[in-house]
Amino acid sequence: MRNTPARRKILAVITNSDHILSYPEIKALIGEICSRVTIYRVLERLEQEGAIYKVAGVDGTFRFGSQSPKDNRNSYIHFSCNACRSVTKLNEDSVTINGPLMHQIHFSYLSITGLCPECRESQKI
Amino acid sequence: MRNTPARRKILAVITNSDHILSYPEIKALIGEICSRVTIYRVLERLEQEGAIYKVAGVDGTFRFGSQSPKDNRNSYIHFSCNACRSVTKLNEDSVTINGPLMHQIHFSYLSITGLCPECRESQKI
DNA sequence: TGTTTTATTGCAACATTATTGCAAAACAAT
DNA sequence: ATTGTTTTGCAATAATGTTGCAATAAAACA
Asked: Nearest CA to B59 among B14, B24, B103, B18?
């Protein structure tokens, strides 16, 4: 595990962002310091280390957010804007379905991933 | 809006499924009745009609589920299995975070889409 | 029922996002 | 400095989804 310039820069922009970043956003933020492929590979390594997490946005492309490797959080709340496509992190307190909302909700999607009863039974993973 | 064989069959398999379907699943279920492109185009039309809805799964590929065009539901609960990749529809009662779960939760992701305050203000959509 | 109109389909090509093989380069340790 | 290993870049490939255009088929109507 080497602390290369690409790794440092990519982790920095993800850590310092207030929202989870898409590949194009990361590329724009780090500048021309490495190739396209390297970005993807660094992201893959950072995810395996547990330094970042990866989720699919509403448009089907992946977003990357920072997390502490020690922090085994397994739940995240994000707001995706249908207009500007930004994805913002929210804390639990900011979600009040029936309260007065600053956000206008078009669609909400709660995706819980893990093992379904059958797969849990057969311990495939 | 024409009721073609492809449209009938595709809508039927989505309507009769207990989980939201990926493109490969739809293709397998309808058989060799039409081309790859037609499936995508029928899905696009059905979504515009409001007969089905489309969401990105955890792997970034889209899933399609049936809904009534009159039914303006804006919230869905799905369970994605990390092992078999199936996505199952859940009703509200089946989600009890701290209760005894049949499902083993690895990761949950609540994505709320719509308009963020800035975009709502400028009425971009 | 035959004709017309228009939506739909198929083909081929293209677009986007992401991944892989492999040799070269960079890093870390001795 | 030399060695061993990780990381990078290039080029190619994969997977998923989209588009242009001519041919076809559904619906409407005479």
From this structure: B24
Compute the distance between CA of residue A68 and CA of residue A87 in angstroms, rounded to an integer. 20
Tell me the pLDDT of chain B averaged across its residues.
Answer: 76
Confirm whether pTM is higher than 0.85: no
Question: Does at least one atom of strand C sit less than 7 Å from the CB of B124?
Answer: no
Mention every residue, 6+ apart, whose C-beta is less than 8 A from residue A54.
Answer: A43, A47, A62, A63, A64
Nearest Cβ partner of A105 from B56, B74, B88?
Answer: B74
What whole-number distance in Å separates Cα of residue A88 and Cα of residue B20?
Answer: 26
Q: Which residue has the tokens 């990761």?
A: B107
pLDDT tens-digit readout, B13-68: 999 997 889 999 999 999 999 999 999 999 999 999 999 989 888 789 999 999 87
Write out the two tokens for B15.
């309507």
C-alpha R_g of chain B: 17
- DSSP 8-class letter at A76: E
Classify each residue of A7-17 as buried b or exposed e, where b means 16 or more C-beta atoms within 10 Å of its C-beta: bebbbebbeeb
Residues of A in contact with B83 (CB under 8 A): 115-116, 119, 124-125
